[in-house]
Design goal:
The complex is a heterodimer.
Chain A: E1 2-3, E2 7-12, H1 16-27, E3 32-35, E4 64-66, H2 73-76, H3 102-106, H4 116-131, H5 157-168, E5 174-175, H6 213-219, E6 223-225, E7 229-235, E8 242-248, E9 254-264, H7 267-276, E10 299-309, E11 325-327, E12 343-347, H8 369-381, E13 382-389, E14 398-405, E15 411-416, H9 421-440, E16 445-448, E17 452-457, E18 483-485, H10 500-516, H11 518-521
Chain B: E1 17-21, E2 24-28, H1 30-35, H2 45-58, H3 67-75, H4 95-114, H5 123-133, H6 146-162, H7 165-170
Antiparallel strand pairs in B: 1-2
Classes of the chains: A alpha/beta, B mainly alpha.
Chain lengths: 522, 185
């Protein structure tokens, strides 16, 4: 095994959280090494094609899924620098205050080990650093926070049409807040509404890590090592502290990267896999797992798409993939008449003909000549909106280690996930509402797709109780003080908004905690 | 950052796939590869025939658009480089196994329902059989779930017919690339 020069901090994963950690800690003078399993993407690799976009998705060994609602890792997880944030849609919402106190308020799930007010300053600072477009006044549901630094992105015809349906039912919409520039910001250009967000944004209008925190990290001296596949986290002899990370290079050679502090930001499935695969005789159930919570409480957002065909050109190819409008009228009150949970609608996302979320898959049962007819019509007449609904943290929804190994002989991750009754009731109620909205909007025909998922959350949840959670509110593991976890795996409850803004806010808060406590950590 | 708004990078090298002709690597679209009769690397003649027949049943024109060459090239390279929808569906590589199992199951069902393999059926029978795999496993089917096979193959057909610059043009949609695929698919 090749022993690398010791670092102050080694970070596993160069996605949203890892990139931010690298930038902040390197700027604070720490020697930072980032291990990324995939390639070092360049902006010119982000080709405008739904086919070529698939290279950005996780590939080094499958995640074996099971359960009645198996977690869809392949579409969510990234591969290479930028991680899943390289192909994300940049819908940046704040979690709501009520998302932080569900156990206290409703006896459901968990309380977060912080309140919204604790996190608010970090949301405000991140939105200023990164640049967000939106209309804070129009978002009547928005938690307290600074106004957006840029005006909202443009709306397009399908968004305008669907908004009429909301208005007819006395429901409200507002421009979606995006980490996409509506005007030039910090030297990055404005969006041109070509709808290729999920293929990666090569002009830098969308704030992916390649144009925000990774360049900052590199400029401050952080080493980003692509094709470095972490296989094990090591501890000292007594098992009281972590000491570094073992990884494979592209040729399969083992390297040891010693470090004073280890940050795992390898996304919600690979981080617990790495911890479980790092078991020692002092930590027989895996590192940082005295609570037996590693891998547990895996969540997604239950999702579904409502479609309609209109009698005018909806320009569905225009705009941004994440949609131009949002409605959160059914968010604040979680206890509904016959189910529990929040949800939001993402309205008028740009659609391309092919791919998982493309026009053709709006009608998966149609094939043959009828599919050509549908495509010709829908390409100019379709409108859509997507549900983001709350999942419940169930102890049995988890990541475990599979019997099957990857090509390096490292056990793969096995996931088990099912929806509790509440999310399923939420989905049914939302789909019925969505169809009503589309009919009120004047759609000639309206239908909805099957139950889907967005985002992956949990698995290394944070909490105040070391017996029931993996980390504290800074992502510091309860068991090993110099081991930190970052990313959506920390979420103890899912809320019902896209998680990337919160991932950034948590990471900024944690990076500053590491800086201010460096003496006790190193 | 080196890339301006709506910049077209002619050197992106992205619209084509690498096909082998003899010992030479040639960049071609699947449609061009089909027209040039580029040798297949993994699929057998019977598998090629069933893929063309199934592709045209799922979306007429898929065979001419090169679905067989597309799939063959994609299942013959490293899974991490593959552009197949299968990447999204958490199917464990090798991806060739998925297609081969699906073809075998399709033929077994075809034999069970029509007493003949899929390519021997007329268009109406093929259409009828595909209807049976949309949302469940029909008689004789075994192995990978039939709806998953249907979804993946239908996606492949849509990819080669509509997921291209040429495909957008068929739908009168502007492609509007940030970075343009350098060939017409």
């Amino acid at each position: 095994m090749r022993r690398e020069v010791p670092a102050d901090v080694v970070i596993v994963g160069a996605g949203a959280a890892g990139s931010l950690f690298a930038a902040k800690l390197a700027q604070a003078g720490k020697r930072v090494v980032v291990l990324e399993a995939g390639p070092a993407w360049r902006l010119q690799d982000l080709v405008s094609s739904q086919l070529w976009a698939r290279r950005l998705k996780w590939s080094p060994g499958p995640v074996l899924g099971s359960g009645t609602a198996a977690i869809g890792n392949g579409f969510n997880a990234g591969f290479g620098t930028g991680g899943s944030a390289l192909h994300h849609y940049a819908n940046w919402f704040r979690m709501h205050p009520e998302d932080f106190t569900e156990h206290s308020d409703y006896g459901r799930g968990f309380d977060w080990p912080m309140t919204y007010d604790d996190l608010r300053p970090y949301y405000d600072r991140i939105q200023s650093e990164v640049g967000l477009s939106g209309d804070a006044a129009a978002e009547i549901w928005r938690p307290a926070g600074d106004p957006y630094p840029m005006p909202p992105l443009a709306n397009f015809r399908q968004g305008e049409l669907i908004a009429k349906g909301f208005a007819a039912l006395r429901l409200r919409t507002a421009p979606t807040p995006h980490a996409i520039n509506s005007t030039e910001y910090n030297g990055r250009p404005a969006c041109i509404y070509d709808g290729w967000c999920d293929a990666g944004c090569p002009i830098g209008a969308l704030a992916n890590p390649l144009v925000v925190y990774l360049p900052q990290a590199q400029q401050a001296g952080a080493q980003i090592r692509p094709w470095s596949y972490a296989t094990r986290v090591l501890t000292n002899r007594s098992g009281t502290r972590v000491s570094g990370v073992v990884y494979k290079d592209r040729n399969g050679e083992d390297h040891l990267q010693p470090a004073s502090v280890v940050v795992l930001s390898a996304f919600a499935i690979q981080t617990p896999r790495l911890l479980l695969n790092s078991a020692t005789h002092q930590h027989p159930r895996g590192l940082a797992n005295s609570s037996d919570a590693i891998g547990r409480y895996m969540m997604v957002h239950i999702s579904g798409t409502v479609y309609g065909l209109f009698d005018e050109d909806t320009e569905p190819h225009m705009g941004v993939t994440g949609g131009s409008l949002v409605s959160q009228d059914n968010y604040a009150e979680k206890k509904k008449s016959n189910y529990y949970g929040s949800y939001q609608w993402l309205i008028g996302g740009a659609l391309k003909p092919n791919d998982l979320l493309g026009i053709a898959n709006a009608r998966t049962e149609v094939f043959g000549g009828a599919l050509h007819e549908f495509m010709a019509h829908a390409a100019h007449a379709i409108g859509s909106m997507a549900l983001v609904g709350q999942d419940q943290p169930l102890v049995e929804n988890r990541v475990t280690i599979a019997a099957q190994n990857d090509k390096f002989g490292v056990p793969l991750a096995q996931t088990t996930h099912q929806f509790a009754p509440d999310p399923l009731k939420l989905y049914n109620a939302a789909m019925a509402e969505g169809l009503d909205i589309f009919r009120a909007a004047g759609a000639q025909e309206a239908w909805h797709g099957q139950i889907g998922q967005q985002h992956i959350l949990g698995g290394t949840i944070m909490g105040s109780d070391p017996k029931a959670s993996v980390t504290n509110g800074y992502g510091q593991t309860h068991d090993l003080p110099n081991l930190f976890i970052a990313g959506s795996g920390l979420f103890p409850t899912s809320g019902a908004v896209n998680p990337t803004f919160t991932i950034h806010a948590l990471a900024l808060r944690a990076a500053e905690f590491i800086q201010s406590h460096w003496g006790s950590l190193s | 950052m080196g890339i301006g708004r709506r910049t077209v990078l002619q050197n992106a090298g992205v619209g084509t796939l690498v096909f082998m002709i003899g010992q030479r690597q040639v960049w071609l679209t699947p449609k061009e590869a089909r027209a040039a009769s580029v040798p297949f690397q993994t699929l057998t003649p019977s598998q090629i025939a069933i893929l063309d027949a199934l592709g045209d049943t799922l979306l007429p024109g898929a065979a001419e658009a090169g679905i067989a060459h597309f799939v063959d090239q994609q299942i013959s390279i490293e899974p991490r480089d593959a552009l197949l929808t299968l990447r999204y569906l958490d199917v464990a590589p090798p991806f060739a196994r998925f297609y081969q199992q699906g073809f075998a199951a399709l033929d077994a069902t075809s034999e069970a329902l029509y007493r003949g393999v899929f390519v021997s059926l007329d268009d109406g029978q093929r259409h009828d059989l595909v209807r049976h795999i949309v949302d469940g496993n029909p008689p004789g089917w075994n192995g990978i779930p039939a709806p998953l096979f249907y979804f993946a193959l239908r996606s492949d057909a849509v990819d080669v017919v509509y997921g291209t610059v040429e495909g957008f043009q068929k739908l009168n949609l502007p492609y509007m690339p940030h970075i343009l695929p350098d060939r017409s698919w």
